[in-house]
Amino acid sequence: MAEVSVYNMEGQEVGKIELADAVFGAPIKSHLVHQAVVLHLAKMRQGTQKAKTRHEVSGGGRKPWRQKGTGHARQGSIRAAQWKGGGVIFAPVPRDYSFKMNAKEKKAAMLSALTSKVQANNLIVVDKLAFDDIKTKNMVRVLKNLNAEKALVVTSGYDEKVVLSGRNIAEISMIPTNNINVYDILKYEKLVMTQDAVKAVEEVYA
Known about the structure:
The protein is α/β, with parallel strands linked by helices and 206 residues long. Helices cover 34% and strands 16% of the residues.
């Protein structure tokens, strides 16, 4: 089992924690990590792009000129794609860009992302995150103490004072363990997790 240090909010080492190899020491499968990121971004797309085909553009019901004898190329409608104001060939239509990824593949991608943070020494475990009041400077101070100004902060549950204290910091993101995803883990350089969050993740993915 990998062993990492546990820090308090002042940045001082207060102990050690053993990480489950099944979660934080799994084989890294980069192709599944890539697939999980692509799926995450695909689900974020609105999919509302729309353009009209020649059958949806108004007008153009009459043949613009007779078939033969004019010296022009034959035309059937002024709403064909080659005409100004005409329809679009193979026009985009509203669609869902997401695709299916098997549960085992999703799990393997998550374990790969978590393991990569451990191997790169970018996983920081803090004993707890708790504030007496809601102040952004409280979270800024803690992150500075942990040397993690750009980080994904994962907590075991929702603490209003902690979440609101970190909400306005542009270079961090705060999520509970039930919303953790591969994209956010890879997006930020550091992964900051409370001890309870580590245990919760191990219970889900071990």
